[in-house]
Amino acid sequence: MEHTVSNFYSDPHFYVFKVPHWRAYFYTFLSLKLWGNLPGPLQRKISKKYSSFFNSPISRHLIKIYVRLNYKDPDYLEKFKPSDDKKEYRNFQDFFTREFKNLPESNSEYVWPCEGLLCDLGKIREIPVSNVKHDRRTPDTIFGLKQNEVPNHYTFSNIFLHNKNYHRIHAPVNGIITRIQHIPGDLVILRPWIYKQNPSLPAFRNERYNIDITDAEGRTWYLSIVGGPAVGTIQLNKRTKLSARVNKLDDIAVFHLGSTCCMASPVSPMLSSKNHFVEVGTRY
Fold first, then answer.
1. Which residues touch 55 (CB under 8 Å, ≥6 apart)?
2. Rg of the chain on CA atoms, in Å
3. pLDDT, tens digit (0-9, with 9 covering 90-100), for 160-178
4. Strand, coil or helix: what is 274?
5. Which of 83, 109, 105 is nearest to 238 (CA)?
6. Which of 75, 132, 149, 217 has the most CB atoms around its CB within 10 Å?
């Protein structure tokens, strides 16, 4: 069977939750003022405790129930396999970090690196400055760079990966990895619909890995892989190393529960718009 992008389209009816303003403000208060003010080590300790259940053998019994509740395709699991050459899913985390049996095929020069809700999209100069713990931060901060290091004409995108989405990040373009940076940070709630005016706010402050890929034309593609509550690990692929060559759709990293992925690119997407679903391998 030919495995094209359309074979892997997991959720064409991915809805943006319409949270009332009062509830969004309440969730924001809980996320930023209460949880967000806890010391980072305590956030990670609580998150690790919570996520430990999903690493336990008993959690594997949730997989079939979860798939039945969240995917219309009865053969959804057949498109994937457990990671690290395991023969079966030993726990729910194994399902969460699942791999494609066969990667989607794409003739596009540039592709989306992951699957999820495109919750923010615009030119770098259009993305609002955020106040984080009394510190004003520009979009460059997300990528671990100084103000104006990312060219203003670059396009910024933020993809929120819901729990039911596929949680691996792939290379959007052929190129060379020219920077890898880990930024410790908070683990505030990622769900964009509770940050009405700035859906990318968690990316300014949360723990993340930043990876730059320089394409054949010498242009840099900036990726930021952002963790959230209950994230045990953002795990880079063993082949994701400085100066390594990557091909479009190569596996770069995987999340262990909860995530979002930001990108600053030298070109703009052709077919996608804000608050729509994107998937791995579709034309950027």
1. 91, 92, 93, 232
2. 18
3. 998 889 999 999 999 999 9
4. coil
5. 83
6. 132
